[in-house]
Amino acid sequence: MALTGVALSMDALAVSVSCGLNSTHLGTRPALRVGGCFGGFQAAMPALGGLVFLPFQKVIGGIDHWIAFILLAIMGGKMIKDSVSSHDDDQKIDANMPLKTLLTLGVATSIDAMAAGFALPTMIKQMPLLVACVLIGCITFIISVLGVIFGRKLGRFAEAHVGVLGGTILIAIGINILLEHTGLK
After folding, report:
1. Within its chain, how far is the Cα of 135 from the centroid?
2. Distances (CA, A) of 23 to 16, 98, 152
3. pTM higher than 0.90 for the full model?
4. CA contacts within 13 A on the Cβ side of 158
5. Which of 10, 19, 30, 148 is the most exposed place for a label (fewest CB within 10 A)?
């Protein structure tokens, strides 16, 4: 189950690194905020998928990758736009981003976890679903916090282009999700 948690947290890791890349002032609190949001969504979405959406699996499974792609493409495009224009610094996607933006990214990075939740009850017969979801959330929390810190350290070396790099990473994650689910990858 730990490997499943690590695998599910890779999108959150990449977005966390992007958030760290764009953070000009980073203390512990913003990294914990990002980690808490991403870990919380990664814990909640498999439970939601496993308990609530099982009857709707065919419908949601057919569009979950499109939802993730659209959300990540919009956020990535905004990050690129904000990095090339000098205004609207209050709305940039970094570890200190507004709560609405953070929650949108939390949903976008955890949609695959919801899809995994459809299969979790059959995969983990020896472990209760709640325990598996908490484990996935904790792993994602730790990985996301470390991702923000790593991204900030990396950002110090590439300050001029971090917005474009971070936005490109978000869009690439969205494209990767789309390609994986459409069978083109």
Report:
1. 16
2. 11, 13, 6
3. no
4. 18
5. 10
User: Which amino acid is present at 27?
Assistant: G
**Hey, what amino acid is at 59?**
V
Cα distance between residue 97 and residue 57, in whole Å:
32
Angle of helix 10-21 relative to helix 28-51, nearest 10 degrees, comes to 150
In angstroms, the CA 21 to CA 171 distance is 15
Question: 167 with 76: CB under 8 angstroms?
Answer: yes
Q: How far apart are CA 57 and CA 63, in angstroms?
A: 10
Q: pLDDT tens for residues 126-156? A: 677 788 889 999 999 999 999 998 888 877 6
Q: Are 130 and 47 in contact (CB under 8 A)?
A: yes
Q: How many angstroms separate the CA atoms of 177 and 64, rounded?
A: 9
pLDDT (tens digit, 9 = 90+) per residue, 83-102?
677 554 445 567 778 899 89
What is the distance between the alpha carbons of residues 71 and 170, in angstroms, rounded to a whole number? 9
Give the gyration radius of the chain's Cα atoms. Answer: 16
| Cα 15 from Cα 72, distance rounded (Å) | 9
Phi, psi of 128, rounded to the nearest 5 degrees: -60, 145
Q: Rounded to an integer, what distance in angstroms lies between the CA atom of residue 50 and that of residue 64? A: 15
